[in-house]
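Priority: medium. Attachment 1 of 2:
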């Protein structure tokens, strides 16, 4: 299994600081949520952890500095589910999920038995096996989100980074998605995901990071991070907490 460590990571885009001096270590077997308002730098931070945007500071994946790894090596170690991916080619769902096996293939090699088994496991886990023969560009937004999650799962990497994996999903499939991510962490993998749903992050994650204006303003267990004061300071909202023996947080009102 693999860990990811960020030391004083910063990102500027078009001359504007987007991520500012963020340091954090992410260990195998943990489910870490990254929260924050729109424009806080969440997506940019996870892209920096993968070397997809130029960044200052240091990122290590396992023992290796990020800059010492090839794109293929990174992709084998860390599966990535970006947000809002557009599909342009009329591939079948099964062939789209099969793209998750590309980091394991050499040029001109064919998908083998092990790859087919990984694809089948991923599709069953995401409950999209019944969509296998459908054309991916003809799916609904929610179906497409589940298929793209299956593609990331098919990598069978030691870590998974997902950026807003619950977008477009109905409540039942949101819960299913969180159960899948929780299960990946429980199996020993590192799971790092960007969320906007405070309640689901509170319920399922081991640890939460909160960004505001590019800075890391909170890092710790959900019940110590999502406090009334933090929600007021970062989101400008009030919320209700507690309920039936579970960690719950329900946004109530904007503060004016």
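Attachment 2 of 2:
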């Amino acid at each position: 299994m693999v860990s990811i460590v960020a030391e004083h990571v910063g990102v500027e885009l078009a001359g504007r600081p987007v991520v500012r001096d963020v340091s954090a270590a992410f260990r195998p077997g943990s489910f870490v949520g990254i929260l924050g308002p729109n424009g806080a730098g969440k997506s940019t931070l996870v892209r920096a952890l993968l070397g997809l945007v130029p960044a200052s500071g240091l990122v290590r994946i396992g023992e290796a500095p990020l800059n010492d790894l090839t794109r293929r090596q990174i992709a084998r170690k860390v599966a990535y589910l970006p947000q809002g991916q557009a599909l342009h080619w009329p591939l079948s769902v099964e062939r789209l999920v099969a793209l998750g096996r590309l980091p394991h293939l050499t040029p001109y090699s064919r998908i083998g038995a092990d790859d087919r088994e990984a694809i089948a496991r991923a599709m069953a886990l995401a409950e999209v096996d019944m969509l296998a023969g459908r054309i991916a560009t003809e799916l609904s937004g929610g179906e497409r989100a589940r298929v793209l999650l299956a593609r990331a799962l098919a990598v069978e990497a030691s870590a998974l980074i997902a950026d807003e994996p619950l977008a477009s999903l109905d409540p039942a499939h949101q819960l299913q998605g969180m159960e899948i991510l929780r299960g990946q962490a429980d199996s020993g993998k590192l799971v790092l995901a960007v969320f906007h749903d405070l309640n689901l992050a509170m319920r399922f994650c081991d640890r939460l990071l909160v960004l505001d204006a590019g800075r890391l303003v909170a890092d710790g267990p959900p019940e110590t991070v999502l406090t009334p004061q933090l929600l007021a300071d970062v989101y400008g909202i009030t919320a209700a907490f507690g309920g039936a023996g579970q960690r719950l947080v329900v946004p109530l009102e904007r503060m004016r």
